[in-house]
Amino acid sequence: MFKKKTLASLGFSTLLVSGLLVGCGGSDTSSTKEDTTDKDNENQEQVEITLSGWGSSPTEQKLFEETLASFEEKNPHIKVKLDVIADQYMDVMKTRLIGGQAADVFFLDAFEAPALMETGVLEPLDGYITEDFDIDDFEQPLLDAFKRDGAIFGLPKDTSTLALFYNKTMFEEAGIENPPTTFEELQEVAKQLTQGTDVYGYGIVADLARNVFIAESKGGKIATDNKATFGSTEVVEALQPLLDMRLDDKSAAQPSEVGANWGGEMFGQGKVAMILEGNWTLPFLAETFPNLEFGTAEVPTIDGQNGTMAFTVAYVMNAQSEKKEAAWELISYLTGKEGMEQWTSGGSALPTRVSVAESLGLYDDEIRQPFISGASYATVWADDTNLPIINNNFNNQFTSAFLGQRPLDEALEEAERVANREIE
């Protein structure tokens, strides 16, 4: 299941720039690169690097450790110390970066990336990337999430996207042969599948993370120049159909309204016939609701345009690392074709390279194909340094409008005003 990481602290950028980073190396890698042509030479100097990340399921953790072991086998001169931060990951990382104690390589969520890339704590990777690394093999939206001013500061290790889950049994009983392909069709199908308050046709997670691509589908923007702009007429028009489904059609509900904690649970319990959820829902359904007959499809189009969300994490290099060449060897292996294929072969995380998705047969996988296909056109969560403030204020007021407590335009106008006051 997708879990949000702790929101970024806005004062972090100023603190790092003014204190920690005076005299750091920046993007000049000439003094840190070593001759790696003798990698197989048993006399090569041994080096230990640290990799920090958060924990995952026992199955995923085992697979990740096996991938690291494969790297060490191919690079016997490099030992990787895995540092798992169990809680408050970004708070811990920021403290360590400020104190000069951060790992050589660490995970960075796209949500946190914009603010961190501005501080100078991350090593630009462009000088390390060679032609045979095949940078063009990455899905462009995922790679762009870790770029700033043309420089690459991270390489996406894996991704998760949204797709439409639909209950095959409910569809069959209602005489509906195929899942909807447009949002208009989804609205009509949702009404057909609704059974009072026992079953809703559509489940909605009413937060910004799941709905940015819908909010921007009419030409509006959630944020512009690091300020909130989600109160625009275009954004209100794009989001209004979600409220209409709940308030007018009575064909949609959010998890808390049916006694569920999140979208996958309300779908698994049969409280909704359709929902947009991520591929993290697949192992949850397999374990918790093994008899559920369901299918997946790409997110229905809006005005003829494809859209979905992508949640991605990158490996980044600490600009203060004294072992940058070894750190790059690790990053390049884990995000290279061999390492990425091993890590994503478990099926929970999706690869960010097209060639790896092809070799794993994901484009031919009936259930996973919609998720992997969506990566090429997804909106990546997130691309703004002030997103934590924007996100909090949007969610507070959008939820009130979704529940019918106030008109959507008034709610979002107020949320935008408060967000920008906090930003200023």
TrEMBL record:
Signal sequence, start to end: 1-23
InterPro entries per the UniProt record, alphabetical: SBP
Presence of the UniProt keyword Signal in the record: yes
Keywords for the protein's UniProt record, in alphabetical order: Signal, Transport
Keyword Ribosomal protein: no
Family of this protein: Belongs to the bacterial solute-binding protein 1 family.
Name of the protein in its database record: ABC transporter substrate-binding protein
Originating organism: Alkalihalobacterium chitinilyticum
Species classification: Bacteria, Bacillati, Bacillota, Bacilli, Bacillales
